[in-house]
């Protein structure tokens, strides 16, 4: 780049470092020779630019042009001090100018910084210089300033896709330089910033261009790099979870928690002053998570597009990672490892466990516009993991005997791989959020990760039912094909609560396009458990509890919900039974809503794993079986995982089948009527109702729907099914009849395009703001000196 002289004196006078106690301007010749030798007065330079209006800046654009061009050129100066001061100056100038509200942002910013004629040359040189510094053997101090300058440049506009300066990062790919810096740095905070920047650049116009950063992330196979990424991600999740715990300790086994409970009981006062005022606690929770939550973006990209990373992350535990570092410490070619700040008590954290643990806190405290998109993203990541065929061994590998369960460690520990899964990642204890009531039962023993998934999802459901809830986040569930030990009573109570919530607040959701699908999928999920519960329940008691809930609520909540959201029911339901005959509390104790502690069926113990499964109920022939061969098989995995699918499609006809739900209600309710008539003086309580269910279960007849056919109804646009829809409910709802017949999107496999495009465009706005803020915070802590103990600025 051609040498250019410093601009007019008026610009220099306003921007150069202020001299203490002096108002004299520096002589121009002195500035030309020594300007980049001077230590940058960041506070003064920043405040001066902040106090200058947009029009005033444009009036002195020639001077700003020259200063900016000179600083870019100084980045290649042989003197380290000049390179350092040049990048510090650029970071401040860019940051303050980017905050201005120009009428034509991209045009005015480029016009102000470089002029249109020099823009391509200057910014290409700038990005190329950043890549050269980050990938070189420069001192860490200079490299850190280069990283912060790159972040300031990439985060210039809140809308990353409208920041035209990021186009120069696409033209001058610095991915390899960023990875080299990432592997050399010891600080977890700096490693996080490098990862977060890569994640942001990978999402720049990724739907319009061939983004080299996204491609490189998807093709990244280096074991050492991926392993270190796992270490950084786990550390960040652990640190963010600690932020929630610092506001409110929820570990019932901790000494502090026990002492707090004792003092609260005796004195009526809480030990934690913050907890004395619920508003103060709510305010503290509203500030969480901190800006490091932006790591979720690159974590999503890696989980979604890089199968190798998925495998390494599912097998990752901090105990095995630490062992690997110690074993490789003597290898001279091995790169320096992270200066991890994990507590000694957390050295057994698994990768999947750390993500689920943090997610449980984030999902239960989802109360702000800022936390909403990150909550959404967590649910999508959970969905991707459950849909991946390689995750089955990590989520649903269940020991067959109690001895095998008891022999497993309570925390994660290293072990040999079985079926592609580390034993420590198959059965583990994971700390989940217990800061909001009602809480799920606390499980002290190691259990399958699929059960942890279910707890995280149920926690989200329980604490996010509100009139302004994120309907798209409630969408999607996948099917379980394994007998999973779990407190299924909580599942039934939560699903019944969701059905009643949607029913009572239907008008509030009429304008939300995903509400119909959510209502249909909720009913379908209950129908699935009713129809195939004997294939997945670990013991009969769990299935009896589901039947009890259906008898208690009746069929009306399901049929009314379908009617309210214009969902077709086929075949039509028969006339309802006289449910009101048994609603009197002194005759049949079913009208109340029992709490889990008073439920007629207790949570199945771990010994239930070896219990015999309930005998399958007898079935009748079904017209659906004729379509069985036209349906595709579902993903064989697991569990109820909720995530989002934005749907802007034309309203279509949705069919649900309530036959089996109605059959369970009718069959057992008829037996209850018979018992009442035979014993008019006795009261039907929960225990007796459960006994009647158990006695007559063998005689229950359900409509047979093959599992693949059941899923296929939502996955296939079968011509036969579509034809059948045309005559459905002949004179029924005009809106539904005029719609387009189609499957429930929630039953299809996850795909980012096209359904998630609007979501990710909006998400990157929050990522930009959070990454910009956390980078400034880390820079401030380092500048303060000694306050950032976990941000060492030296290498071994």
Automatic annotation (TrEMBL):
It is found in: Membrane. The keyword Transport does not apply. Transmembrane segments: none annotated. The keyword Zinc-finger does not apply. Keywords: Membrane, Transmembrane, Transmembrane helix. InterPro entries: ARM-type_fold (IPR016024), ARMD3-like (IPR039868), ARMH3_C (IPR013636). Residues 593-616 have a biased composition (Low complexity). One of its GO terms (cellular component) is cytosol. Residues 324-344, 578-616 are annotated as: Disordered. Its main location: membrane. It comes from Dissophora globulifera. The lineage of its organism: Eukaryota, Fungi, Fungi incertae sedis, Mucoromycota, Mortierellomycotina. Residues 441-775 form the Armadillo-like helical domain. It holds the Pfam family ARMH3_C. This is Armadillo-like helical domain-containing protein.
């Amino acid at each position: 780049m051609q040498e250019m002289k410093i601009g007019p004196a008026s610009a220099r006078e306003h921007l150069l470092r202020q001299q203490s106690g002096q108002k004299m301007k520096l002589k121009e010749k002195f500035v030309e020779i020594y300007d980049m030798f001077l230590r940058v007065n960041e506070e003064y330079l920043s405040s001066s630019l902040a106090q200058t209006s947009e029009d005033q800046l444009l009036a002195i654009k020639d001077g700003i042009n020259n200063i900016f061009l000179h600083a870019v050129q100084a980045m290649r100066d042989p003197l380290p001090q000049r390179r350092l001061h040049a990048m510090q100056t650029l970071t401040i100038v860019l940051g303050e100018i980017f905050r201005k509200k120009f009428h034509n942002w991209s045009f005015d910013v480029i016009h102000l910084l470089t002029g249109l004629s020099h823009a391509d040359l200057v910014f290409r040189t700038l990005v190329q210089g950043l890549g050269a510094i980050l990938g070189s053997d420069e001192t860490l101090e200079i490299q850190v300033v280069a990283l912060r300058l790159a972040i300031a440049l990439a985060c210039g506009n809140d809308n990353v896709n409208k920041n035209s300066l990021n186009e120069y990062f696409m033209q001058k790919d610095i991915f390899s330089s960023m990875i080299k810096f990432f592997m050399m740095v010891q600080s977890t905070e700096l490693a996080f910033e490098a990862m977060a920047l890569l994640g942001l650049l990978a999402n720049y116009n990724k739907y319009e261009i061939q983004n080299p950063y996204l491609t490189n992330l998807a093709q990244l196979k280096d074991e050492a790099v991926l392993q270190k990424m796992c270490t950084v991600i786990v550390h960040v999740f652990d640190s963010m979870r600690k932020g929630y715990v610092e506001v409110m300790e929820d570990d019932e086994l901790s000494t502090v928690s026990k002492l707090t409970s004792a003092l609260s009981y005796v004195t009526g006062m809480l030990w934690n002053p913050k907890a004395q005022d619920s508003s103060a606690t709510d305010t503290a929770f509203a500030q969480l998570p901190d800006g490091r939550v932006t790591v979720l973006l690159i974590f999503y990209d890696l989980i979604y597009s890089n199968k190798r990373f998925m495998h390494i992350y599912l097998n990752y535990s901090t105990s095995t990672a630490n062992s690997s570092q110690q074993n490789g410490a003597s290898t001279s070619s091995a790169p320096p490892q992270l200066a991890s700040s994990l507590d000694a008590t957390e050295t057994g954290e698994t990768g999947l466990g750390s993500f689920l643990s943090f997610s449980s806190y984030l999902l239960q405290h989802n109360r702000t516009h800022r936390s909403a998109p990150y909550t959404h993203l967590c649910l999508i990541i959970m969905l991707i993991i459950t849909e991946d065929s390689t995750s089955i061994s990590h989520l649903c590998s269940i020991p067959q005997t109690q001895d095998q369960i008891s022999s497993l460690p309570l925390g994660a520990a290293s072990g040999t791989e079985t079926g592609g899964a580390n034993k420590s990642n198959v059965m583990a204890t994971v700390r989940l959020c217990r800061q909001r009531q009602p809480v799920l039962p606390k499980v002290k023993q190691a259990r399958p990760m699929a059960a942890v998934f279910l707890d995280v999802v149920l926690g989200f459901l329980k604490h996010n039912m509100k009139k302004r809830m994120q309907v798209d986040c409630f969408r999607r569930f996948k099917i379980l094909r394994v007998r999973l030990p779990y407190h299924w009573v909580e599942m039934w109570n939560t699903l019944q609560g969701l059905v009643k919530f949607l029913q009572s607040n239907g008008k509030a959701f009429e304008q939300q396009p995903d509400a119909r699908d959510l209502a249909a999928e909720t009913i379908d999920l209950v129908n699935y458990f009713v129809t195939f519960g004997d294939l997945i329940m670990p013991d009969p008691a769990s299935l009896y509890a589901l039947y009890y809930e259906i008898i208690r609520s009746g069929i009306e909540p399901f049929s009314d919900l379908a009617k309210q959201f214009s969902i077709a029911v086929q075949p039509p339901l028969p006339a309802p039974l006289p449910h009101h005959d048994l609603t009197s509390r002194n005759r049949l104790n079913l009208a109340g809503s029992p709490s889990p502690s008073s439920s007629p069926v207790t949570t199945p113990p771990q010994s239930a794993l070896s219990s015999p499964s309930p005998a399958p109920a007898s079935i009748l022939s079904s017209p659906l079986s004729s379509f069985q061969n036209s349906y595709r098989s579902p993903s064989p995995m697991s569990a109820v995982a909720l995530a989002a699918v934005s749907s802007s499609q034309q309203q279509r006809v949705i069919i649900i089948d309530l036959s089996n739900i109605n059959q369970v209600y009718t069959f057992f309710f008829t037996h209850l009527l018979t018992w009442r008539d035979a014993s008019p003086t006795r009261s039907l309580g929960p225990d007796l109702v459960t006994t009647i269910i158990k006695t007559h279960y063998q005689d229950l007849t359900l409509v047979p729907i093959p599992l693949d056919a059941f899923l296929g109804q939502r996955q296939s646009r079968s011509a036969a099914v579509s034809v059948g829809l045309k005559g459905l409910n002949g004179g029924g709802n005009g809106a539904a009849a005029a719609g387009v017949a189609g499957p429930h999107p929630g039953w299809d496999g996850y795909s980012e395009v096209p359904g998630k495009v609007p979501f990710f465009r909006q998400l990157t706005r929050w990522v930009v703001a959070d990454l910009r803020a956390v980078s400034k915070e880390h820079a401030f802590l380092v500048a303060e000196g000694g306050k950032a103990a976990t941000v060492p600025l030296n290498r071994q």
